[in-house]
Amino acid sequence: xxxxxxxxxxxxxxxxxxxxxxxxxxxxxxxxxxxxxxxxxxxxxxxxxxxxxxxxxxxxxxxxxxxxxxxxxxxxxxxxxxxxxxxxxxxxxxxxxxxxxxxxxxxxxxxxxxxxxxxxxxxxxxxxxxxxxxxxxxxxxxxxxxxxxxxxxxxxxxxxxxxxxxxxxxxxxxxxxxxxxxxxxxxxxxxxxxxxxxxxxxxxxxxxxxxxxxxxxxxxxxxxxxxxxxxxxxxxxxxxxxxxxxxxxxxxxxxxxxxxxxxxxxxxxxxxxxxxxxxxxxxxxxxxxxxxxxxxxxxxxxxxxxxxxxxxxxxxxxxxxxxxxxxxxxxxxxxxxxxxxxxxxxxxxxxxxxxxxxxxxxxxxxxxxxxxxxxxxxxxxxxxxxxxxxxxxxxxxxxxxxxxxxxxxxxxxxxxxxxxxxxxxxxxxxxxxxxxxxxxxxxxxxxxxxxxxxxxxxxxxxxxxxxxxxxxxxxxxxxxxxxxxxxxxxxxxxxxxxxxxxxxxxxxxxxxxxxxxxxxxxxxxxxxxxxxxxxxxxxxxxxxxxxxxxxxxxxxxxxxxxxxxxxxxxxxxxxxxxxxxxxxxxxxxxxxxxxxxxxxxxxxxxxxxxxxxxxxxxxxxxxxxxxxxxxxxx
Length: 634
Hints:
This protein is mainly β. It has one domain (7-53, 76-632): Quinoprotein alcohol dehydrogenase-like superfamily (Methanol Dehydrogenase, Chain A). Helices cover 6% and strands 34% of the residues. Helix 5 (588-595) packs across helix 6 (605-615). The relative contact order is 0.14. Residues 1-23 have low confidence and may be disordered.
């Protein structure tokens, strides 16, 4: 098959419909591969983001014999927040992965490994984009120059670069098939990913809320790179791709007709007379998931720009700004969109009028037959930064549960009838220069490090959590320029209990109870993975990679690796042997004070991260990007 190399520009315009997509093929390929237990064909293993494997060769009985099989340098020191994919291609088992981006010379290096000899993989090609690079992306990446993984479909390796390119490579040769300029650092936009392949589309967002970027989700044709649809998170109903049918089952979540993506913000500001909705908010910068039966994509948005909330409300008091008029739609929102057009089927805002930077971008995990109040649902489960675990009927958005999964004092509860949190004024930052305590911290009860679930037990989720609080003091705004740091708050973060900054939890999303938890003096910034061998795997910022008994929560095995772990474990099988792989490479928001060499005595540095990094001793953890792979040796 011959492919046409294209270079396309996708930014700066409103909703664009460029015709219907061609017949689907990629998603069925991913779904078929996900049924093959030997593979790990997508970032979350499947497009439902379960991070579950049916492999059971490594068990609670023999995991103690797990030993290093091989390791591979990623070519970059830091920011390894993703995971490889393992697929069948060209008659071989192949592994593909990308590095982080400490600088443009080492930015997002892709490697293709032939696993024919599974204990001795051979790199057959590597790729680094060398032209049209934008050095300004590195200092504009909030928070840290991380990479969350690549995708494989239709013989292509699809990945993204920090400075805004989405690229399809020939998976056999590493040659460019098409290149799209998707995000623009000068507008505050950088891509940490990952993208999502759904049907025959590559769907991509970007980050940049702290640089006044305006959130946008774009779908590209997998074969050509042409734009198919483009939907913003703020702006007019047309820009956001709302229709008269949006939220039909739950109109109290917000509907089309009044452009509330504009009117829920104050009016024009600054010398350019922009509205608040135009200069920050709602970036789709993390995980997307897909239901091929409903033909719906699920993706959540970030905070509404700067952290000095009174500027995002035309009223004067906390009460007036929380009456629903100034919710700053559609930041902090989970969207369910039609895959072929981007039209919003439903949209639910977790934290209306955000006052804490509780970014809503955490993954949306899809499970079936989840029983709630005697009825089984096709459910969407979302562990939010704000400390609540949400359960929705994903067919129409109805809110079924919203339980606290960490210490939360900013809200009493979420009203299931209205969907709105009952905020606590004492813990709600508002006035400029007034310091306010709140739990969880701005890094959230869980940040973007993903949970896992065994679909056979759809209520039980294995989640890394942060156990931190903060003091937040909003500051005076000094500018309204896109592409420039746009926070305007002093934030100090600290462990809620000395000596414990992270926990892994097995949490029941229906009852709101914790089955077991594992405390850790270091942050747990790694995702989790569950297997049918009765195990859950995860990593710690200390560099410890662990295997846990799913039933008891007992740590059965651990190894100290080269650097702090912020990556997500995967498992696969080649020639009768099950392997487990994990990235090391310190980084992420909590690690950036170390990786960027910041002053560890500045407690407000990196928006509060330096205080936590110092309190947990992360300055004693070395950097180094490595992929380590293990198997059982009898």
